[in-house]
Amino acid sequence: MGPSKRSRLKIAALEIGLVAAAQLAAMPLMAAQQASPTAQVPRDWIDPHTGHRIVRLSNEPGSLSLYFNYDAYTPQGDKMVITTPRGIAAIDLKTFKERPVRDIAVPYRLLFTGHKTRNVYYETLSKDADGPKTVYAVDIDTGKQRKITDIAHGDIQTINADETLLGGVMTDPTASSQSLDYFKKSDSRFGQANYQAKGADGKPLPYADAKEIRMNERLEAKIPMTMFVVDTHTGQQRAIYSSTDWLNHLQFSPTDPALLMFCHEGPWQKVDRLWLLHLDQPGAKPVKIHQRTMNMEIAGHEWFSTDGKTIWYDLQTPRGQDFWVAGYDIATGKRTWYHLTRNEWSVHYNQSADRSMFSGDGGDPNMVAHAPDGKWLYLFTPHRVIPDAGIPSPNSASLIEPGYFTAEKLVDMTKQDYRLEPNGKFSPDGKWLIFRSNMFGPSYVFAVELAKSPR
Fold first, then answer.
1. Residue 295 and residue 218: Cα distance in Å, rounded?
2. SS3 content of the chain, % helix, strand, coil (to 5)
3. Sheet holding 119-124, edge to edge
4. Parallel, antiparallel, or unpaired for β 259-264 and 247-252?
5. Which among 250, 241, 239, 275 has a CA at the least distance from the CA of 111?
6. Domain edges within the chain
7. Which tens digit of pLDDT belongs to each residue from 18-39?
8. Per the confidence metrics, is the pTM higher than 0.85?
């Protein structure tokens, strides 16, 4: 028997990176409607196509790990937080045992862990996606919680390096548009809007094309938005930046408490997506991270390296044709581009804590790369291009540093419905890639061992 209706209502509003604050409504996972009982989902097996060991970490259907750029680990690297139909749970990363942290009897969204403390942060949700919320911090070991603040409008998306500030974004509460209302309605199975649209011939468009149409409508609505911060000790809130651009994907640097990255959301070929804002510089204006030089060039799904020195992102030159993972050195502006193939393109990439390896979570044929064989989890080894005979180009220090990935397949994701994005994340010790999957019907949290198992 699946979880009760009440327990199903406890998991809500997954942050998926392509949604603004207005989209982060309560989106309960209807686990009871998903077919496979847990008894039929293996706990430990070897992928026959890759030779890598996979372990199921979560106990219940409807469990989920966090979005790829949200910190899910304690600073000591011993535990990871997930959502379950009952509330917040922790996975012991040595034993892989799941333990409840706190049961939550109302719709909520798990946010992230802290960079310094052993706190887990979450917010309760109202029926209105952009409506009132309450933000809490919970000790991962004791389950004891404290209230941080009430938020009248908007949504929390990030926490800074010293855990003194939360960062969020809100839409103008007086704004109303058909496009905004559309993004308040979400498909509970996948944690994002159920994108639907029709083409000129009146026939339904494929999912990816329908998503582009709806994203463009939301962008063109020019709805006023404001980014804000919350003092985690006093609960005091203040606005830091306002715009009619679609503001989203807020990320504080993991090492600089005053450095905030955010994006201009929308179809990537229409927007300059990547921006930095220095909160410790009065009157500072956002700094654009990537300058387009080609028609239909796109960049996005950005994240900070663990040392806070580099911003990495998906780059395509042009869209859907040539694929890179691009790096921007914050201190120097130096750029590094690693090339990869169409099948290796991934919805999200990530980097190991020691910054030696990258991962990719693949994608289905309807997505931007239209990869014929892209439904895999990948481990990427980066390589720099070495000049022939050691003779570099003139002014090489000011040019893009080229490179390429060699790929190893980790998990066969053929049965994954990619409307639920796997969001691979390296374990702190660099030995596992942790991901969420619906390959067995319901969603669970899994880990694949990076070292290949002996056959």
1. 22
2. 10, 40, 55
3. 108-113, 119-124, 133-139, 145-151
4. antiparallel
5. 250
6. 5-449
7. 333 333 332 333 333 344 567 7
8. yes
